[in-house]
Fold this protein.
Amino acid sequence: TKKNLRAIPFLMGFPFHKVFPLLILVALQQGVAMGTSPKEAPPKGKKMGFDPQHFHKPSREELKKKLSPLEFEVTQEEGTERAFQNRYWDNHEEGIYVDIVSGEPLFSSLDKYDSGTGWPSFVKPLEEKNIVTKKDFHLFFPREEVRSRHADSHLGHVFDDGPRERGGRRYCMNSSSLRFIPKTKLAEEGYEQYLTIFSREKK
């Protein structure tokens, strides 16, 4: 008992208020707190796809360094690339198209068709939640502009002259606003959840 009493003054001076938070932090990192396990890091070389909670749009200066002059003009200044002189108008490979700034999924090759306009055209978005439309009065008549929700990139316009048997819509996009990810690289890029749409199509 006397030994225990002699230990009390030492314990009373021990900085528990500083040590306990550190112990809790270490426990959380090791995955032992609350019965959880540590979050596994992605395999080396594998990317994480698009996460809206962690995306922060770069500044204009950062985008000027990241994008080509044409990509910057189209996405940030509502420009339009030349018809038949862009990288995806005649692309027939299977895969998805994501926003060139954010990586948010926008369109699928399964919904792409040859509209004869010289720009990549789609009958519908892959992810409606990543698409925003608004009226555009830059010409003599109003048009429906299409923008990405998270990066707020100008993508193109949508018209009502698409294939009627597929909904009648034509999403006329600028290749400069998009980045194409082939089906064979979806898992590597962190978009493996979209592999199933191609397997369903073949059944």
Summary: Residues 14 and 203 are 68 Å apart (CA to CA). The radius of gyration is 26 Å. The mean pLDDT is 84.
